[in-house]
């Protein structure tokens, strides 16, 4: 029997602070929450989500020309392509997040994956920034950063390294790793790390941490279209400015709070259901699609 990864319903835009709920199901290869999803998610065409700020409000660090191209052209193209591809298919009744995970298909992606994931990734990215961003986080987020990376500066170094070493197009992520999944026989970006901690990861093309069952807290777009108008080929400069002048640590803190609450809730749920879900010893497989490198010209 195939094992499927699936997640719960969401009615808020994927980029906004929210709790993404996962369940691991081996029952008939479909998400047990889909019945609930049907009543809460969009069954008509997806629309391009509006930016959470004015087009010129991130200047001089990210220009309105970049946003017009990046959001208004690249992301819009993904929305239009996804709508065309999923019309008349089972994906049409799913939430965007469910489409991302289902279409990833354990590393053998359906053609709609790159469009669904890039829509989700970009909504998440836009909501990770704010005018007057940057600075330093506080509270639980800072405590965990210092616990897991030694210092805030240590985390920044690791995140910048991931962003600068992602070959070709892709993303760098700060994530909360809280899965309980047996990832044996899988290509997992942080297989030796303990759970319930912050980790940095990078991913090629459209792949995002949802397919690893990680909770993304911050995503940096390192596709060339994200920075070439403002920084030409200087990716490292763009990443530094993003972290020093644009990132909203308040949003990242909110995402962490929800990820930890979700992990806690799932742990309690797992205490009662783990035997039912994992009892047949079937290996859970997760794969990282690192072979192909999509063109930056979307
Ligand atoms: Fe992008």
UniProtKB/TrEMBL annotation:
Its cofactor is Fe cation. It is found in: Plastid, Chloroplast. Its EC number is 1.15.1.1. GO terms for molecular function: metal ion binding; superoxide dismutase activity. Keywords: Chloroplast, Iron, Metal-binding, Oxidoreductase, Plastid. The lineage of its organism: Eukaryota, Viridiplantae, Streptophyta, Embryophyta, Tracheophyta. PROSITE patterns: SOD_MN. The keyword Iron applies. It comes from Asparagus officinalis. InterPro entries: Mn/Fe_SOD, Mn/Fe_SOD_BS, Mn/Fe_SOD_C, Mn/Fe_SOD_N, Mn/Fe_SOD_N_sf, SOD_C_sf. Belongs to the iron/manganese superoxide dismutase family. The keyword NAD does not apply. Residues 47-130 form the Manganese/iron superoxide dismutase N-terminal domain. It catalyses: 2 superoxide + 2 H(+) = H2O2 + O2. One of its GO terms (cellular component) is chloroplast nucleoid. This is superoxide dismutase. PANTHER family: SUPEROXIDE DISMUTASE, SUPEROXIDE DISMUTASE [FE] 2, CHLOROPLASTIC. Its main location: plastid. Residues 272-298 have a biased composition (Acidic residues).
């Amino acid at each position: 029997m195939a094992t499927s990864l699936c997640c719960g319903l969401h009615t808020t835009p994927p980029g906004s602070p929210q709790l993404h709920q996962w369940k691991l199901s081996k029952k008939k290869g479909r998400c047990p929450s889909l019945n609930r999803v049907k009543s809460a998610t969009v069954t008509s065409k997806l629309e391009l989500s509006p930016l959470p700020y004015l087009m010129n409000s991130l200047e001089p660090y990210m220009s309105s020309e970049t946003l017009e191209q990046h959001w208004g052209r690249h992301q819009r193209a993904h929305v239009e392509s996804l709508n065309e591809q999923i019309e008349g298919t089972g994906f049409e009744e799913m939430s965007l997040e469910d489409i991302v995970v289902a279409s990833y298909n354990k590393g053998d992606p359906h053609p709609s994956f790159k469009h669904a994931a890039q829509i989700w990734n970009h909504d998440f990215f836009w909501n990770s920034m704010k005018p007057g961003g940057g600075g330093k986080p506080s509270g639980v987020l800072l405590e965990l950063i210092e616990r897991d990376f030694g210092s805030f500066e240590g985390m920044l170094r690791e995140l910048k390294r991931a962003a600068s070493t992602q070959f070709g197009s892709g993303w760098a992520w700060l994530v909360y790793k809280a899965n309980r999944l047996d990832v044996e026989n899988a290509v997992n970006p942080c297989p030796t790390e303990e759970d319930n901690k912050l980790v940095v990861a990078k991913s090629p093309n459209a792949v995002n941490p949802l397919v690893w069952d990680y909770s993304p807290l911050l995503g940096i777009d390192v596709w060339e279209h994200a920075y070439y108008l403002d920084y030409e080929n200087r990716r490292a400069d763009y990443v530094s400015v993003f972290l020093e002048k644009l990132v909203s640590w308040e949003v990242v803190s909110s995402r962490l709070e929800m990820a930890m609450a979700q992990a806690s809730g799932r742990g309690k749920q797992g205490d009662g259901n783990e035997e039912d879900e994992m009892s047949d010893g079937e290996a859970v497989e997760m794969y990282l699609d690192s072979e192909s490198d999509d063109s930056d010209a979307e």
